[in-house]
Specification:
Elements (H helix, E strand, L loop, with lengths): L3 E6 L6 H11 L8 E7 L4 H7 L5 E5 L16 H7 L3 E4 L2 H6 L4 H13 L3 E6 L3 H5 L3 H12 L5 H4 L3 E4 L13 H18 L2 H6 L1 E5 L7 H5 L6 E4 L7 H6 L4
Parallel strand pairs: 1-2, 1-8, 2-3, 3-4, 4-5, 5-6, 6-7, 7-8
Bound molecules: 1,3-dihydroxyacetonephosphate.
């Protein structure tokens, strides 16, 4: 049985001091033994958030990471820096990074391999645009993203990965994919993992839905057979995140 994983993606929000305030506000609200709770925060917030979440059930994640060990890459964050700070998860290939920061399936693959090398669990994002959905190529597109993302990743590593299916048209728009749409794609992703690896790997990997998840939509989404939790943007910055984490109560 896969444990649910519900992660907040703070994006470019919260100064270090505001981050600590938010953690203190959310801390008592996000307790749920049946769920892995992750706060993915801006790099500058990682250390204070790590401190503020000590002794809680909250795990801290990063929103990005570079694919080299270290060196002359001004402005980048290395995997070793994340490990040293105690980071366990890193979001890789968010559609905003693909759109605004020129990330490609190939750089996403390099980052995933590097994260595994350092023992950090990647939350691997995929998702189609509205045009692609209307053209009826959603599943083909997602399968391609997944196949490139997992190149040279071993079955053992893949089994521990998290995939976030985030339809681009549902991000920050208030337009949630229907439960059927979300389940259909998440099930196709699992089938794709079974093709690349085997049934056991497909059964172990956790697949999240992301895109305007709210306290109202979470229970039905997370009850789907192939949806193992969510990657939450806007609502992760509010007390509502506590309701999302406790979707089953
Ligand atoms: P929203 O929940 O704000 O739509 O953002 C989703 C997202 O991009 C999470 O990574």
């Amino acid at each position: 049985m896969r444990k649910k994983i519900i992660a907040g993606n703070w994006k470019m929000n919260m100064t270090p001091s505001k981050a600590v305030d938010l953690v203190n506000e959310l801390k008592p609200l996000v307790v749920n033994d049946e769920v892995d709770v992750v706060f993915c925060v801006p790099a500058i917030d990682i250390i204070p958030v790590m401190e503020a979440t000590k002794g809680t059930n909250i795990q801290v994640g990063a929103e990005n990471m570079y694919f080299e060990d270290k060196g002359a890459y001004t402005g980048e964050i290395s995997p070793e820096m994340l490990v040293d700070a105690g980071v366990k998860y890193v979001i890789i290939g968010h559609s905003e990074r693909r759109e605004y920061f020129a990330e490609t399936d190939e750089t996403v693959n390099k980052k995933i391999l590097k994260a595994f090398e350092y023992g950090i669990t990647p939350i691997i994002c995929c998702g189609e645009s509205l045009t692609q959905r209307e053209q009826g190529i959603t599943i083909d597109w997602i399968r391609q993203q997944i196949k490139i993302a997992f190149q040279n990743v071993t079955a053992e590593q893949a089994a521990t990965a998290v995939i976030a299916y985030e339809p681009i048209w549902a991000i920050g728009t208030g337009k949630v994919a229907t439960t059927e749409q979300a389940q259909e794609v998440c099930s196709a992703i699992r089938a794709c993992i079974a093709e690349i690896y085997d049934e056991a790997t497909a059964a172990a990997i956790r697949i999240q839905y992301g895109g305007s998840v709210s306290a109202a939509s979470a229970p039905e989404l997370f009850a789907q057979a192939d949806i193992d939790g969510g990657l939450v943007g806007g609502a992760s910055l509010k007390p509502d995140f506590g309701k999302i984490v406790n979707y089953n109560k």
